[in-house]
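Treating backbone geometry as a discrete language has practical consequences that deserve illustration. The amino acid sequence and the backbone structure tokens for this protein are reproduced below.
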Amino acid sequence: MAKQKVTDLKLLAIISDFIDEAGWAPSYKQISERSGLSSKSTVFDRLKRLEQAGLIKRQPNVPRALMLTETGCNAVKGLTHAG
């Protein structure tokens, strides 16, 4: 069975779901485990891309300092309504 590609929107939904469930942002390791991405550095690169797109905000050097922007929240809502 081929590994399913994790799109940016699916990654955003994984982060949003974790925050809803736990009340705080997931660690890079937890994002990696839930998404199937191969490493924390891959997660870092993908989060950087989401941040550049204005979908999330991060604070450097602060653990779990990750939040969805209004644009990111709207993207997740659109994904759940479409699926």
